[in-house]
Amino acid sequence: MHAIHDFTAKLRQPSLAPNLEIYVAWRRELARARAAGEADPEPPAIAPVSINLDVTTACNYRCTHCIDWDILNTKHKHQEEELRDSIRLMSERGLRSVILIGGGEPTLYPRFADFVGYLKELGLQVAIVSNGSRGQILLDAAVHMDERDWIRLSLDSGSNDLFVKMHKPANPKNDLDEICAWIPEIKAANPKVRIGFSYIVVWGGASRDGEVIYENIDEIVLAAERAKAARFDYIAFKPVLERQENGAEVMDPDKADAETTDVVARIRREVDRAKTLATDTFEVYESINLRVLEEGTWKEFTRQPKTCHVQALRQVLTPTGLYNCPAHRGVDKAKIASATAYKDTDSAAQTGYGLTQILDTFDASHECKEVTCLYNGVNWWLEKMTMDPTIDVKAEVGDERLDYFL
Length: 406
Fold this sequence. Notes:
This protein is an alpha/beta fold.
């Protein structure tokens, strides 16, 4: 498992131990009180350790494989002052990292680079997931970032031709050549920030709302070569996800045109070829989802505990509300609170009750039964700790990694 995906190790860091202890103690006390027929204890005044932050639904691309297709350009965005108030209160209550991602293209948000600077003033780790179309804005944001931060560009192809077919940029000049040309400039402005090339692997037969999307397995190696030449720090491969009727994002290799084993073999062969390009300064890695797909163990990761504990420690703040998971972004039954969930202490208190309710009512063993969950392992670990009061949380503390992205 790559270190960035080892979420259990991240939560075991000494710097995050207080957050973990507060959560586990609350859940144990809640269970004890309910067993004794007593009133529920007050939710703790804590914020999640990490959030995915959608600052806008505006987007200048129409990617056929986009999981957020239905909410793009719906004119929703955060009001900056309210958002700043929310993030400030969250940082005071334990927030440690913000991933600017999803729902649209974050660099279209007004004063985006200034907002990144504000996040850094609060001492937060910051990541940006972008389509790469606004290189100057990314450069302006990057100068605020440090060696613990990262930028990841969603590119998914190795050739200009396939890139334009998959992403349908509003400006045809936003091709791979133009985007990659910005990487050396960003690196020159701030060599500390890590920049990644994200590649969603799409196989024939995958679809989005019934629309066939473009296969890109044959361009895996070409993309790795391009990423290395453009001075990206890494390329990361992950499988395409589809939105189910219940709102969950799932991986469904059974929809492939060819036999699943044949598709997996092709992906494995191309990723192995890409890995030969790795050096001390260029990394090639796979997501947990892709690794378990290749190993044939992916369905084991769909067996979830009834309670998703991670939703208390990592949440998704969007212009339409606060949600419990990126895999259920925008889904009503996964909504914890409004978009102003943490704008002040009163709002945060109500959000605490909303979290209590969703921990009770959102049955992950049912709602996520087909989700190959990145947090499967850490959820079962948290389930064991919250259910067994004899476990000493302090004894679970491990090494410090200074990585707070969940």
